[in-house]
Amino acid sequence: MQVCTSLLVLGLFFTVYVITDIKSYKQRKVDDMMSLAQVIGTNSISTLQFQDNDAAKEILLELHKVAPEIIYAGIIDNKEKLFASYPKTSPDSFHIPAALQGSKYLFSDHYLYVTNAIRNDKEIIGNVVFKVELSELEKIKQSKFEVAFMLFAISIGFAFLVAIVIQHYISRRLLYLVDAMKEVSKSGDYTKPLPEEGRDEISTLIRVFNNLMRRVKENEQRKDEFVGIASHELKTPLTSVKGYLQLLSGTEDKQVQKQFVQKAVDSTNKLENLIKDLLDVSRIQSGQLQLTLSKFDMDHFLDETIASFPIISTTHEIIRESNFNHALVHADKQRIEQVLINLLSNAIKYSPGEKKVIVYSKKTNTELIIKIRDFGIGVPKEEQANIFERFYRTKNMSRYISGFGLGLYICKDIIKRHKGRIWMEAEEKGSAFYFSLPLNNTAAN
Ligand code: ADP
After folding, report:
1. What H or E segment, with its residue span, contains residue 130?
2. 0.85 exceeded by the pTM?
3. Among 190, 272, 307, 326, who pairs with 213 as Cys (CB 3.0-4.6 Å)?
4. Is the CB of 116 under 6 A from ligand 1?
């Protein structure tokens, strides 16, 4: 493309160069011939006054020495009759092109015609006419075209040479990248990044590829960690259930039996929730997480969900603040409840030793915004962008707090399907998680 553009520009440049050169040659020729015609006119005034043809011819003959390219010259009197001419010609054969009448010069195929009035004081007493051969112009044209063509050919050759060298350089690096990609896909080794140098498009491609490899590697690591965590998280409640069942078989006390059954049920609930999360993730992955939409009042819904929370949390008080009493939304009630419970559970889980969590709700012209604010361990700044990713768990305290790294990922998908937004902001102590639902929304599945 670059070679083609350069050739186009060069072609245009040479055409303009040749045309300008020819034009300026023609102008020069016209100026020269006009001056000559004026000189001849001035010298011929007396010959016309005294009707001295021979003297006029003598003057015209002088032209042969000064400008041999004038192949024809004539003096015409004020009655439009040929008074004298050079070379000698019969009056009939002297012919002035019709287009020359009224103008001072005219270019025809190979000739230039020039005419100039002969004035005595202010009175026009005749005209000088020249017919000039333009063979020199043809030669100039030819030589200019030859030079232009030669320069053009050299430029084409040079442009191609440069293009071949650059292309070789580019394709060598591209082939290197392709080989590296093949190697990675064959070996599955994402640990060795390619050397990143330069600032051109290929270097950007290498950087993108390295980034991709880093992300794949991180994902792999997270998946490995997940398998470990998942087995642990699934095994713990299962072990509890087994333990309580064994204990149950060894006691006759009805009260104690009731407690063990309740504990076993709690553990199975936990197990059920974990499995539900896993199922949701696989539904999201296959694009099959469906919404069942209905219209409900968000204010009432928040009160209801929060009221049921003390059953789950005995450690924290959930405080509610709102700027509205009534807000109808069109959403999947169960899924929104899932989001709210998830965010509330996280707020409690990641603020051990604290006493309260605040739920703010706000209505704007276009949406409802729910904010869940805790005073816990917070999320390090550099990890805030990642926590909504699948399997992501922060590297700080959350290592010691059980979890799968799936809750926020599921919440994000549910809110996205409602055409809402979900995000987090760090607070001076702890963090605030937000989600919004559009009012008058038509959520898509
Ligand atoms: P889980 O809590 O099961 O690990 P989530 O997807 O709900 O999974 O959360 C992902 C990660 O985000 C958590 O592991 C934790 O590191 C961080 N996180 C979520 N909520 C909070 C919170 N309220 N305070 C601090 N960190 C949080």
Report:
1. strand 123-133
2. no
3. 190
4. no
